[in-house]
Design brief:
This protein has helices spanning 25-30, 57-69, 87-94, 118-123, 127-134, 149-170, 184-190; strands at residues 7-9, 33-36, 39-40, 49-52, 75-78, 98-105. By secondary structure, the chain is of the alpha/beta class. The chain has one domain. Strands 1, 2, 3, 4, 5 and 6 form a six-stranded mixed beta sheet that branches. Helix 2 packs across helix 6 (149-170) and helix 6 runs antiparallel to helix 7. The longest helix is centred in the C-terminal third of the chain and has 22 residues, at 149-170.
Length: 199
């Protein structure tokens, strides 16, 4: 459900660091970008945003503008320089990686909701959330339609596509190619299940 690990994005032809034995210079040479795609509490002010290290600010700024033009509203937040121990700050400061993080709202991470069950995880519908949102306690739009998984996954997939496109345009020597990844609109229209293989 929630990915809390930094996911290194490698340029074409790169190789992953499997066991942590390659360090220092090798790590700097291999990592192009480090992007995290977790979820956050709807009452958290840092949600539906891109948090970017200053060296990744250009990519993040262009992505936020392009995503907004495509109907995915996302804010841009700087990585706090004095908040130590977080990936977008430490990796950005101590490696050559362009480090950033994108947060979507998760209905199960907050304390305000009622029973945690499959329906809440998949649909994000909750009466307590409606009351909280009506009183201005949420930092994301919330209505009777809830916070469905399609909304959350679609936001992350479109963000990933935009970031890869922009990174490749700005760094033609490190082009990253992906294919058959649905965007926000497609995921919302067809649902998550359409893209999953049957077990």
């Amino acid at each position: 459900m929630r990915n809390t690990r930094a996911a290194p994005l490698l340029p074409r032809g790169g190789s992953r660091i499997h066991d942590g034995k390659k360090r220092n210079k090798s790590r700097k040479e291999i990592l192009a970008d480090t992007w995290k795609f977790p979820e956050a509490k709807p009452v958290n002010p840092i949600v539906n945003c891109i948090i970017a290290h200053e060296r990744a600010r250009e990519i993040a700024s262009i992505a936020a503008l392009d995503l907004g033009a495509k109907g995915v509203k996302i804010r841009l937040e700087p990585s706090p320089k004095k908040l130590r121990g977080i990936s977008h700050r430490e990796l950005g400061d101590h490696t050559d990686t362009l480090s950033l993080l994108m947060e979507t709202a998760s209905p199960i991470l907050d304390r305000l909701h009622g029973r945690t069950d499959e329906e809440l995880i998949l649909k994000g519908k909750d009466d307590f959330f409606l009351k909280a949102a009506s009183r201005g306690l949420f930092y994301v739009p919330y209505s009777e339609s809830g916070l469905p998984m399609e909304e959350r996954v679609g936001r992350h997939l479109s963000s990933l596509q935009e970031l890869i496109k922009i990174f490749s345009e700005l760094h033609p020597e490190k082009v990253v190619e992906i294919e058959r990844v649905p965007d926000y609109k497609t995921v919302k229209e067809r649902g998550i299940g359409h893209f999953l293989l049957k077990p």
